[in-house]
Every structure is written in structure tokens, then in C-alpha cells.
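User: Can you predict the 3D structure of Helix-turn-helix transcriptional regulator? Sequence below.
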Amino acid sequence: MNRKVAPAPGHPRKLVQAASAFWPQTSIETVKCSRVRPKLETFVFLEGQQSFWLDGAYFDIDAGHGASCCPKALTFVLDRETEIQLLRGTAKPLSKVSIVSPVTWLEEMEVEKGARSSELADFMSGHLNHLVWEPGPDVLALCNQISQPPKWLTGEMRELYLSARGLDMMLAVCQRIGKDSMAGALKQSRNVRVQMEKVRSFLIAHLDEELHIDRIARETGTSVRSLQRQFREQFGETVFDFVRGSRLDKAREALLRDRISVNEAALLAGYKTQGSFTTAFKTRYGDVPTRLRDGRGR
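Assistant: Sure. Here are the predicted C-alpha cells for Helix-turn-helix transcriptional regulator:
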């Protein structure tokens, strides 16, 4: 069990801390390697490059320099004390803004669990969950305000100003987490749909053959469990309900077009007896196959 580190007595944590830093050049000594407390943190790299390890996760963020700057943001969750290890420094400038909140910030804001977004809750639930993203103009404007607060602000007014900008940044970060999660879910949903369409095409092409779930899964590149669940979710029926219905459709078409016998139609639909075929046929089409073949059906 991960042990949560509480703030030291007499030193209450802020809900959000906003800060900026600029170094003309960096080295491993510029930012001390140390153990850091559990937190939700966002770095917005405005210029420069930094590479480091957090536990077993490696990060290399490069925002470029001068005219080629392309700001990058990194948001991550630490749910236990973690060692940060910087790998190297550079002779070029590094400018970044950081936004830090305790991992318990949702509880501290007294947001009820039922009112929390599932995307944000999932992101907050795992050590070293992270997201690399490109900040938009709104986020960059906030970074500029944090880096260069009005000079006339001092004392508690300055802290209030930074806290307000920090909360605005937190809102932007949470929106980005939700957007990224929804985009990932949408992409996954589309991939599933494409895969299940592939399964359906395979079934239609092999209706005359003996079909087993293991073979269908193997030849369409899916697992048996995923195939059964996802096919039903996509099309509202099981794999073999679809197969039976498609075979009946094929038999019905042959009755209408070729006037084959009911017994031939039963065999075409995969039924061993004419009686069971007639029952299934009437259930699906509301009429018996003989009436349909003879042109007396509905």
C-alpha cells in the first residue's frame, strides 16, 4: 500500500501553487535532484529542453529556442514520494511555469464523488499517469501573467493574484485531461467498429461453411472474449444470432428468386429439419416459407 505523505503540522498546503522559473543555462545542479511529495503538477516549458527520470518513467521535453520555440506542457500525478533525477543541463536558456496541487485537491474542494468526471478521476488514480500536450493561446497568456505579475502587486495581493491564475491554469489542465481521454475513447470506439465490421464481412462471406467462435476470432484477429462482447455492443445481437439471421435471409432470397424447395431452403439456412426451419422462418418473417415461395406471402 502506498503511504500518503501529509503536510507538515503548522504548514497547510495551498490548493494550487503557481510559479515560474528562468535559467540562462542549466545543469544538474541548477535544479537539485531530490525526493518530491505526492502531487498533481503541470510544467509548461516556454523555452528550452529538460530531460529527467521520475521513478521508472523517462521524460524529455523540448520546447525549442528563439524563433523556433514551440511550448510544450507536461502534466503528471505522483501518489507517493518520488525521486526526480535530472540527466543533463544545456548551455541554452530554460523557461517554464509550474502549477502544483495536492493529490487530494478534489477532496479538499469537497467535490462529491458523483459529481467528478470519470476522465479526471481515472487520471488522478494512478502513480505517474501523465499527459504531454501543446498549450494553446489561453494557457500561454496565463503563463505570461504568472511569469510577469503586475509590479504594483505585493504581499498577500500578489499571492492572491498568482493563486487566481493558478486556478485558471488548473481549469485548463483538467479540460485538457478530459479532452484527451474522450479523444482516446472515440478513437478506440472507431477502431472497434472497424474491427467488428471486418468480422461481419467475414461471416457473410463464409455463411455456407461451418463456423466456430474460435475460428472466427482467429481469422479476424480478435480474442473470443472481445469478439463476443464487442459484436453484441456494436450490432445488438450475438455473433451466431447474426449468422442464423443471415442464413435465413439467404434462404428467403433463394425461395423468391429461384423457387427452390422448402427442404433445400432449410439446408441452405443450416437447419437439419424442415420443421425447425419453418418455425425459425415464420418467427423472423411472419409467414411460412411455402406461401412466400408460391407468391402468396405477405
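The chain has two domains: 17-148+158-185, 206-298. Residues 17-148+158-185 form a domain with the Jelly Rolls fold (CATH 2.60.120).
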